[in-house]
Write a structure and sequence with these properties.
Pfam families: DUF3046. The chain is mainly alpha-helical and 77 residues long.
Amino acid sequence: MRHSDFSQLVDEVFGPAYGRALVREQVLPRLGDRTPAAALADGVEPRVVWHALCDALDVPEPQRWGRDDRRQAPPPR
């Protein structure tokens, strides 16, 4: 997953305004108590950040992929 894919999914799944607020402000223990923005800036792979954000907000698997039902990122190992 690229950073652009991450940003697009944030907008599609959470909406542009709320999604961007989540990326800036939601502290996630799974990411070392960092926000998604901080984790991305620190070099954490976007797919890892995406799954951590979705898991923390209980986003069901079928709804994680926005409008493109063929788009999926494998869960982090």
